[in-house]
DNA sequence: TATGAATGAGAATTCATTCAT
DNA sequence: TATGAATGAATTCTCATTCAT
């Protein structure tokens, strides 16, 4: 990876943190530049606009999630175990790299106008969506999961996890995040599993 | 209700629509004034600031949801039926009054800074949260639902519904929203129900 | 004329002076606001953009020239006298209201990109062009002027006058502008007149 | 000519094209560097500033015109024929090397501030002005032209030609440029010629 | 109550120029 | 000579809020 590529990634990481903490519109380019100890003008040598940076950031953060899930999908374990593993992983992200999850929830989902051009459909998050699809398809094929439409299952899994991430951000939970892992997995698994499983 | 109160409500409804469609930061006071056919200055006779208006709007829209759920909670039906009814109702909202749901998802959840002072905890949405609590408590007491912590159940229900509302907004669903009602209810119910139920 | 209209005109006049003196790109909105003793933001309550202001300015200044020439055209005098009168008038403008002429020469003619949308063809200067056309047509019909294509005659008249206005701006002339009036008129008239005249 | 001199000329030619097409302020040093397939920094090894480059460009383009006119002046033909020849030559330039003419009209004449220091008076275009002077003086001495002040005659010739070049740039002419050559020459010649001629 | 002109701080973005390599 | 990352001041435009009427 070239020095320029490395710096681009570095900017993305800083932007990710700031965007997720303060929101897209409350994060200014000078904010990001300051975090980078870089001049404002130089930022534009790396990204043509704040929007472009936001689009790179969603791809970057989604890739992290996609890779984690892909690794889980590759394991020789039951779909139930995959659900439990992914849930745990997700909550650990919320705990340790909250910006990755929060960016998705608070920036990507809420600022459609920013991602309208260039991220149509699921274009910028497709790698992750694909892995969820694989998880669900394999579960259904093995008979572990009920047959159901993708979107209802998808919104169950991600809504459940995303909703909990929000609660965590609201600081209303009294226990450590990870302790909720089994309960949440259980909810998701029960919703998905076939009656014979 | 006084004439002033009526006008306030009218402003809130217009603001709700604009905020949910364009986001908090892309909706200007002149935008809202224009929708109201009212002068900018006069707006400030009703609300002290844009933020205050946003806070009134979250209370207003949450009340609609709370009242709907309260009515369902009062019915003499099983908890399962309540889940199915609420889900249907929610999806009908998404279809017919999208601003109520979208405001919650795209403005309230994503712009923490706006609601930081005055809506701490669940202050501005407490009526609705309370009704969900009642739904869950009664289900647990009757033995229909498993015992589980409130927050895991809450985030499952609302995440599931909210997630689907997002998908609907993304225009990726090919069927009419209402047709998904049973599948979604089924997922939620299965996640909640006790093994004996 | 409403107070707002009056103020708009006042802004146009100030902009005209600044644009013509310093050029379009070296005149900033704060410059114009300062000349108006008005805040920058308020400027935008009158004109949506710097470009829009520049377009209003060309119409405003062209109208002045058009009205002067129209008055001359209405007189019951020979075409030769009209040429002499118009030339004198034009040079008096250069001397007393240089911004009107300079704006045309230094802003309108040179910054095509600014006037590209909205002033296509001669849209923003058509009233003046029309009067020149009338002057030439009537001279040709009365037999005073040779028959010739409009554009060759037009560019001769306006090039001759505009060129001299430039020289005046360059401060290379040693006599008072008005003293050149007859020589210039003579040149223009000789170029136009028919051999029998 | 040294390799460095050659490259300088090459830069000037590219700058001439870009400046005349997009204007001085809309042409950036990176634009010119890109056209040269050269780095931005290296540009500054050849020209100390954008303004200096613009000054070299006016000298370069004026020299082209000056040399053309000088050659015509050296011919053993009547002044009338010289006028006709120069006009034709000028229009051919407009057609085939528009940048040379447009640079003069759209950059040099309109951005006084750029050429203020270093091109005072006619310093940067003096070679060309001198040749026009020679053309006029010889015509007057031979009795072909009327006696008249240099500046009135100069603005007639160059205004007439420049004005037509502008019209050509505006794309309002329906015939090929060269076809207007005789009419324009005729206008200029009639304006200048003595009554006995 | 109602109007809308006025304010001014702050946003994103641009670009001539420099300089370490 | 050549590169292109880095600087930072400057520019246009926006908008919540105020206030005289």
UniProtKB/TrEMBL annotation, chains A, B, C, D:
Annotated Pfam families: TetR_N (PF00440)
The keyword DNA-binding is annotated on this UniProt entry: yes
InterPro entries found in the cross-reference section: Homeodomain-like_sf, HTH-type_Tx_Regulator, HTH_TetR
SUPFAM superfamilies: Homeodomain-like (SSF46689)
Gene Ontology molecular function, alphabetical: DNA binding
DNA-binding region range list: 28-47
Annotated ranges, domain HTH tetR-type: 5-65
Keywords: DNA-binding
Keyword DNA-binding belongs to the record: yes
The protein's name: TetR family transcriptional regulator
UniProt-listed PANTHER family: ACREF/ENVCD OPERON REPRESSOR-RELATED, ACREF_ENVCD OPERON REPRESSOR-RELATED
């Amino acid at each position: 990876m070239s020095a320029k590529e490395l710096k681009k990634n570095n900017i993305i990481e800083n932007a990710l943190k700031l965007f997720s903490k303060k929101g897209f519109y409350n994060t200014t380019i000078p904010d990001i530049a300051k975090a980078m100890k870089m001049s404002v003008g130089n930022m534009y040598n790396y990204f043509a606009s704040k929007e472009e940076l936001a689009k790179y950031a969603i791809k970057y953060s989604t890739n992290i999630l996609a890779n984690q899930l892909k690794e889980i999908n590759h394991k020789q374990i039951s779909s139930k175990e995959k659900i439990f593993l992914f849930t745990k992983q997700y909550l650990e992200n919320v705990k340790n790299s909250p910006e990755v999850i929060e960016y998705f929830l608070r920036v990507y989902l809420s600022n459609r106008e920013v991602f309208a051009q260039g991220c149509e459909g699921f274009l910028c998050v497709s790698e992750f969506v694909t892995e969820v699809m694989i998880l669900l398809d394999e579960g259904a094929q093995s008979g572990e999961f009920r047959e159901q439409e993708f979107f209802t299952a998808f919104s169950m899994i991600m809504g459940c996890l995303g909703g909990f991430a929000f609660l965590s951000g609201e600081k209303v939970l009294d226990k450590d995040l990870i302790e909720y892992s089994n309960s949440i997995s259980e909810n998701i698994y029960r919703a998905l599993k076939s009656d014979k499983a």
